[in-house]
Amino acid sequence: MSTAGVAITARGISVRGPLGPVFSNVDAEIRPGELATVTGPSGTGRTALLLTLSGRLRPITGTIEVDGRSLPKGAKRARTLIAPARLRPGFELEGRWRVREAVRERRITTKVDHDDISDAFDLVGIDPEPEAVIDSLHPGERLLLAVALGMAALPAGLLVDDVELGLPEAARTRVWAALEAIADAGTTVLASNTDPPRFAAGPVIRLPGPNGETPHRAGGTAPETALLPGQEPNTVEFDAETTRTPREDAITEPHTFGTEVLSPDPAQLALFEPPAPAVPPEPDTAETDSTDSGTNETSPEAEPTDSDSEDDGDPR
């Protein structure tokens, strides 16, 4: 499985968004079949740079050439040559689908066949269960599934955003190895990550942080690649189904505060409103003394009383 990669050259490009500059004065020189990595702290415009280099976002300054053609005139061709495997947010696999449904959708939209999909799976080293729900896959296998589906049509370039996000160490190594194998097969890979890979890959485009700092590889997990407490995968084996064990101090599911989803369980009502005061039972009228005036009067204690005290809340 091989293809001819695409060359990308950028000089002094800048992008500005509604809140100001996204990145400024970026140069890039990427040859066909290289694994290039865009690095920088969160919020430095890594995803925006991937979009810009692939003809999906127009810079306000500088020049870009993709496959020898200048952008924006050649932007449509650039988008055809460089396919997104994962761009966050906006281009990700549908987590509720099964693997076979994602494969079928890709075969329809890109006109690839079963052999193309199989070759792409072999290239990145996965063999997912067709009936597995995508969200149930290990994060590393989920990313490699997206990469394989992107590679099935043999694009000249491939975009992979947030390579290490949410991955344990073993999975990161495997994903980078798969991206390197894709580059070795001829496809130009544009990846983004907080830090550059730990092996000698292709060019690294460093985007400075707010204070001018540049990413560097240190021990442990960079802040952007760490999961929240209680959300770490239980295993790094790709073939095992991943579950998340909730902790007492962690919230693993979003909470909805609409009244329609509150539980009717009486034990939970005290969480939202004070319990209603107990009302004494009404006296049995069948045993009322015959000397009464004919009306059934109840004890004053049995009548509910209104209160405007601070302890009982607002007056009714």
Residues in β-strands, percent: 15-25%
Average pLDDT, rounded to a whole number, is 76
Radius of gyration: 30 Å
Helical amount among residues, as a percent range?
10-25%
CATH architecture identity of one domain: 3-Layer(aba) Sandwich
Name the helix and strand elements from N-terminus to C-terminus, one letter apiece.
EEEHEEHEHHHEHEEH
> What is the 3D form?
globular
Tell me the name of the CATH homologous superfamily of one domain: P-loop containing nucleotide triphosphate hydrolases
* Coarse structural class: alpha/beta
User: Kindly, what is the distance between the CA atoms of the first and last residues, rounded to a whole number of angstroms?
Assistant: 76 Å
Structure overview:
The protein has 316 residues and is an alpha/beta fold. The chain has a domain at 8-215: Rossmann fold, CATH 3.40.50. It has 7 helices and 9 strands. It has helices at 46-53, 75-81, 99-110, 114-124, 139-151, 169-184, 266-269; strands spanning 8-17, 20-30, 35-39, 61-66, 69-70, 82-86, 157-160, 188-193, 204-206. The protein has a 5-stranded parallel beta sheet with strand order 6-7-8-3-9, sandwiched between helices. It has a 4-stranded antiparallel beta sheet with strand order 2-1-4-5, covered by helices on one side. Helix 4 crosses helix 5 (139-151) and helix 5 (139-151) packs parallel to helix 6 (169-184). The longest helix is centred in the middle third of the chain and has 16 residues, at 169-184. The radius of gyration is 30 Å and the shape is globular. GO terms for molecular function: ATP binding; ATP hydrolysis activity. Residues 303-316 have a biased composition (Acidic residues). It comes from Actinopolyspora righensis. Residues 274-283 have a biased composition (Pro residues). Keywords: Antibiotic resistance, ATP-binding, Nucleotide-binding, Transport.
